[in-house]
Amino acid sequence: MHISSPLSNDDVAEGRGCELVSLNDDEVAEKSETSTKLSGSRIPEVKTLALYLTFFGQGLTAGILGPSLPDFQLQVAASLKWVSFIFTARSIGNLIGTVVSGFVYDRVETSLVLIMSLLVMSVVGLGLTHLNSVITLAIAMGLWGITAGFNNTGCNVWCMKIWGNKSNPYMQALHFSFALGATISPLITSPFLSPTNQEHAVMSNSSAKMESNLSLEMYLFDSLQNESQTLEPKFWIVSPSTNLDIENNENNISLHHTEYLNFTSSIHNIESVSRGQLWIPYTIVSVYIMLVSLFIACLRCYLVSRGLEPATGFTKNKKEEETELEVGEKSNPFIIIVLLAVFFFVYAPLEIVYGSFLYVYAVEGYAKFTPEMASYLNSTFWGTFAAVRGISICCAVRLASRTMLVIDTIGLCLASSLLTIFTQNTIVLWIGTVLLGASMASLYPSALSWANLYIRVTGKITSFFLFVTASSMMIFPWGVGALFDEVGVFCLIYVTLAACLCTAATYVCMQFVASKYGRRKGDTSS
Q1: How many helices (H) and strands (E) does the chain have?
Q2: HEC string for 349-403
Q3: Helix (H/G/I), strand (E/B), else coil: 298
Q4: Residue 469 burial by CB count (10 A; 0-12/13-18/19+): exposed, middle or buried?
Q5: pLDDT band at residue 199 using 50, 70 and 90 as cut-offs
Q6: Is 518 within 8 Å of 394 (Cβ atoms)?
Q7: In DSSP terms, which residues pair with 23 in a beta bridge?
Q8: Closest CA relative to residue 350, chosen from 499, 175, 489
């Protein structure tokens, strides 16, 4: 069938002729389809860019807390013990957000949830530096953690939805953007911290000792005063040294009390300076997160206008479920999910445990490093971790996720074995630390990409894996800290060796079971 297209008034006015243009319906459909493909050809890349920007913001929020902790202590006028509770509140919030987000992402469009989560995170970040009590600060940190759990789950799920079985290099880049944000965040925060931030740790220890001495001497002084009220005058005559001791204690306590008041006054002065500066880095990070949410909102509006995303924001309609059934995809093997959960539970805390306790082990272990040298060793570990995570992006283009997992697990076992056998060799400590950092860098994103090959990674499954990861990262550091007190710093190496061997053994079981089931069907990239 042919359609005659009439000439427009402009055509007649310009004298282009009176012949009619005849177009075929198939040609029109082909042209419109071609234009749709061209307009949507870069959509996966733009979506991936949005994910990188979001995860970079996640890294900024994670790296900003540590340097600003002393200033938060001054802001709420509380001890470091109570202020450190904000980390616990954030971890609990992260667990809650991780669990809840799994159900939300399976029912609501991922981009819509990310927009709302990022907006809430930016608003909470703007208000953190204006809270004056530990309770309100902990509640705000818990809410911050909930949004972080939503963002973490959403970015991983969305990346695997976009790229399917080709997600390995993009997953590596996604997690590298987090490491990059966590590295840059302290550099953004440092210029705006109070000048006495570093001195505050020393002053806090001094204040604790001063409070202890002052309370003890005040107790003795009160006891002597109470005793002096019950003494008969003849005791003052017989034992004049008692009166002298009381006077000396009075003078000594008065001196300490004056010093303590001066110290308290200096703390209030520091607080006024600190609270005037801490809001700047948090505002920078919060505004960046808000801009990312606006970028995703604009992207969503464009996709909805093109009909590439549902306008309602809800997913999993009946048509999509029928399509999945037509593809013939089987239900996920339960044993693979369990093995993956064990894998993440054993490996995930290894990064935090080794990176957190390495400094103490280097100073108090056989190496007997100076504090400065131990700091260099610790920085080398995290620097290697971040650098190799960036390099692994290029490696993932050429290497399969299974190959990268094999290389990483071999590196973990080799490094931990060297550290265990040659515990007194400082050169091996450097080599083993570098090898551990390099082997850990790409392991987690490679495992997620591997999982996407054999199971259909939904929002619930991703949130389950992240929940297991967050739980282990809360439990293991506490357990290793308790072992440090009971056994000694050398337990770090043995815990590292055990975790690496368990990680390798779990992966061998995973690969053996997965080979029995084969790769999943219906693996498509959107």
Answers
A1: 21, 2
A2: HHHHHHHHHHHHHHHHCCCCCCHHHHHHHHHHHHHHHHHHHHHHHHHHHHCCHHH
A3: helix
A4: buried
A5: very low
A6: no
A7: 3
A8: 499
Compute the distance between CA of residue 48 and CA of residue 375 in angstroms, rounded to an integer.
Answer: 35
Tens-place pLDDT, residues 322-362: 444 333 445 567 888 999 999 999 998 888 888 878 888 88
Nearest residue to 152 (alpha-carbon basis) of 100, 218, 82, 217: 100
Contact 141, 85 (CB under 8 A): no
Q: What is the Cα 196 distance to its own chain's centre? A: 28
Distance CA(120)–CA(114), nearest Å, equals 10
The pTM (predicted TM-score) of the whole model is 0.67
In 106-167, where does DSSP find H-type helix? Answer: 110-127, 134-163
Backbone phi and psi for residue 475, each to the nearest 5 degrees, phi listed first: -85, -50
| Structure confidence by residue, pLDDT tens digits, 52-79 | 999 999 989 888 877 777 778 788 877 7
413 token code pair? 């076992």
Asked whether residue 246 carries a pLDDT value surpassing 70, the answer given is no
pLDDT at 80: 65
Place of tokens 């590298």: 176
Lowest mean pLDDT among 34-48, 142-156, 277-291, 392-406: 34-48
Q: Which residues pair with 22 in a beta bridge?
A: 4
Residues 6 or more apart whose CB falls under 8 angstroms from that of 336 comprise 451, 454, 455, 510, 513, 514, 517
Going by the DSSP 8-state scheme, the letter that residue 445 receives in this structure is H
Q: Residue-wise over 231-263: b if at least 16 C-beta within 10 A, else e? A: eeeeeeeeeeeeeeebeebeeebeebeeeeeee
